[in-house]
Every structure is written in structure tokens, then in C-alpha cells.
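pasting for ref
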Amino acid sequence: MAAGGGWPAVCEKFRAARTLSAVESLKDPETEPYRSKYSARALLQEVKQLLSAAEEGGEARVLAVRRAVLEYELGVNHTDTEELSAGEEHLQRCTQLLEPHRLSPDCVSLYIQAQNNLGILWSRRDEIETAQTYLESAEALYNQYMKEDGNPPLDPSEHFMAEEEKLTDQERSKRFEKAYTHTLYYLAQVYQHLDMIEKAAQYCHTTLKRQLEYCGYYPVEWARNAATLSQYYLSKECFMEARHCLAAASVIFSQAGQVPSAEDVDETEQDQHDLPERKAEIARCWIKYCLNLLQSARKLLEDNIGELDPDRQLELKAQRKKEEDEKEKGRKKAVLFGTSDICDSVLAMEEKVSSVYPLDFQEAREIFLVGQNYVQEAKEFFQVDGYVTDHIEIVQDHSALFKVLAFFEEDYERRCKMHKRRIDMLEPIYADLNPQYYLLICRQLQCELADTYYEMMDLKVAIGNRLEKLDSHTVKKINSLAQFAIKYYELFLDSLRNPDKVFPEKLEEDVLRPAMVAKFHIARLYGKLITSDSKKQLENMQTSLEYYTFLVDYCEKYPDAVPAVETELELSKEMVTLLPASMERLRAKLSPCV
């Protein structure tokens, strides 16, 4: 057939089928989403029949490979049109035809792509371990071929090309590497499904690196995947790697919306439409980076009562000086993305924010300011109208940034002002929320507002303790802050009541600790209220005792609750013993002399 006039016509039909599948199908109407795919399938069947008619006169090996190409194209076609069983049959036939020659340069790329597609097909059936088998087999075959041969293999499309149309070695290599990159990409997803998180992250990183190397990526998708990977590195406290992923995500994202190359034909109008949202998503990942870095530094620096430990601070600063020499090694150890031109832009982006733990207020503030800038960027898209939950989460992260920055601030008054900023951003949001629809968020905000007022009250008490005598303004301020804290803790506890306003006898596991801590803090707050009225003081002590007693009694009745509140329980038991005696002494003072 190759010698006759029919071969060019066969190649033309094959090319037309591929164009229908890859290009024309994107324009199909919603009412007929697979119109072009079905037309492509009809053409492929015609080519298959023409090949069958030529089998007697042709070379068996060449015909077998061409038939395998058609089985592959039909397999992908059926899979694309949701006909998975038929798709599987064609893909299996393809691999069976190629099996004896799978390591030869004219078959290896096609065999790997068939196994990739079988992996995808089984993933769609939620048979993840079967998918894993096919994809790992494709990976092993690539590695074996590169070790034993390594020459750029034929692309499957070349089996239906005239000699003069064949691809260059450079183009063959690019397409082969792209097929293998797909293998790694799908393996990353499979490992994610199987909860092999570390392996998934490793494969995701390699995929992203290869996509840049071989220019086989869509900027929006690439940036989103890199930003997502940064969150894995954050969970492992690998801040250098997390920052590198985010810097690369920001640099590559900036390419989106530029004139598309042939490589970018799949980056649809939808992707362009989604640009503001994707930009805001990357900004949110940057916020998490800054917040996690600050919070991890806090854990390193705090003493047993949660304050900054100056000795530990000095020790870590001295240690960091020694480690400066290791910085370059660390830089090389991090898995870098991209070609030199991209790397330069990424490194410039990285210079804007540190990846080492901040050890004092100035260093912490620099990271805080970067995080705050990304808060504003994220809020531009995730506005409260239309994105209530997202908007509130961003505001909560902003509040958390202020909270952790306050830890580094030595001046109590300035620290108080930072917590006041948190109140000012959280209270209006809480006031506008309907608990019927946003109960969980309301509870989170109630606890956070209560904790913030509580912290401010503690700071005002500490400021007051430095004075020779408490002035009326400070007393008023301490009492006001304590009452606001009590108000929000009570609102949270009330949210746990049933429709008949009855507090649950046994608390659900997810609210056990917050509820017990709220009870404990209310007990302590009543003890902190300052009054010159002894009768009022006695009432406050009685209320305080009731809350401490609740905690002790609950843990006696439900011992499984003890691990959640060990410290609070120990202090509550102590107060339940001490308070009655203090109250008796106060009562004795109030009683008229006999």
C-alpha cells in the first residue's frame, strides 16, 4: 500500500481524524459535545479497514505498529466520550500488538502513552492501585529505554507520515519527554489518592521542573500546581522550598494572558477568565507562607508561659551566625525550577521575603508586611459579597498575622494596639453573619474575639501592675475588656445549646476543648474583675467557682475528656479547693460583729 497512490490518502484521513479530536472538538456545541470526536472515530475506522486490506502485502512488523497506533487513537477517543470499556479494549489491543517490540525506538513512545491512558482510565473508575500499576510500568519502561538506547524515539504520529514529513530528533525528544512528564504527573495524583503524600510531592516537583525544561506547560495551571505544592512544604516546615515554589508560581503566572504559542492552545478562554481568581489563590498561599514562618519561629522562641524567651533568642541568633556559611549549600540542596532566565526572576522574587525564622520584632515585621500585602491582593478578588467564607478566612489569617507579630513586640501598649486591630477587623464581620447559615464560622469568630479580649485584658493587668496604684481609667479598661471576653465566650457556649436552650450533657469531640477552655477562661475572668464592692466581689467569686466546678465535675463524669484539658483541669481543682476558703474570709468581713 505504501508504494501505491492510496497511502497519502490514508495519511490524510489519519491527520484529519487527529485534527477533529484535538482542535475541532473544542468548538463543538454543548448540545453535541462529542460531534467531532464521533467524526474522528469514523475516519479512524476507515483507516483501520484500509490497513486490514493491505496486511497481506505489507511488512508484518510495520503493519502491526500502525494498527497499534490506530487502536491507541480509538482507545483515547472512546475514553474521551465516556465509553471506558470500549476505550480499555482498544488500549489493551494496542499494548498487546506492541508487547514484543515495546523497547524499540519505533514503539516505546506509543507504548508509554498507551499505559498512561490506561492509568487515567482506571483512575476514573476509582481503581487507583490498578492505575498505579500501569503508570509505574510506563515509568520503568522509560527508564529502561533511556538506559539501554536513549536515542529520540519515533512519535506515534510519524507512522502515518511521508518520509519527508518525519520529525527532527529534537522534536522527537521533546514529545517523548512530554509523554514521560505526563506519566510522572499522573503518578503524583495517584500517590496523592493513596495518601503517599511525600512521594506525591516529590513527583509533583519533578513534573513541574520537567514542564519548564521542555516548555510543556500552561502558565495558569503550572502556577496553581506550584503554589499548591508550596503548602506541602509548609506542612513539613521546609520554608526555603515553599518560598521557591511560590516565587516560581508568581513568575510563571505573570506569563498568563500573553500571546499563546502552539503549546498553549489548550489554555482556554475560561483560563483567561479565571486569571483574577487564580492570582488571588496564589496570594492566599503566600499569606499562609508568611503566617506559618512566623508561627514556627514563635514556637521556637516561646517559654513555658507563651512569652518570648530572651535566652533562647540569643542562643538562636548565635547559632544562625554559624550557619551563614551553610547557606549556599542549602540553596543548592533546594530543588530549583526552570531555565536560567526563569531562575533569575524567581531568585529576585525570593529576595523579597526571608525563608529563615525571624528572631526579633524587626525581622518578624518584614515578613508580616509581605503577608499583609498579599492579604490586600487576595481580598481584591475574594470580596465579602459573593465569597463570604473565603473573605472571612483571609481576614482571620490577617488577624493571625497581627497576633503572631504581637508576640515579638516587647512594648505592652503597642502589643495591645495590635490586638485592637484584630478586634476592629473581626467584630464587624461577626456582626453581619447569620449563625443559621454560618454557625461554624460564627463559633470560630466568637472564640477568637473572646481570646483577643482576654489577651488584651491580661496585658492591661500587666501594665497596671507596674503602676504604684491602679487609676480608675485602668480599672475601667480591665473590667471592660474582661466583660467583652466573657460575652464572646458565653455566646460560643450558648451556640452549643439545643433548641430548648439546654446545654449538652456530653460535649461532641470537636467542641470539647474549646467549650472547656471557654468555661475555664470565664472562671478566671470573673476572678480578675476589679470592684471595691465586697458583695459584688463575693458574687464574682461564686460565679468563678461554679465555672471551675463545672470543669472538675465534667472530667470526673467523663474521664476520656481529661487529656484534652489537663492543664486547665489541674488549675480548676486547685481553685475549687482554694476559693471556698477565700469566700468564707470575705463573708466574715461582711458579717456584722457579734
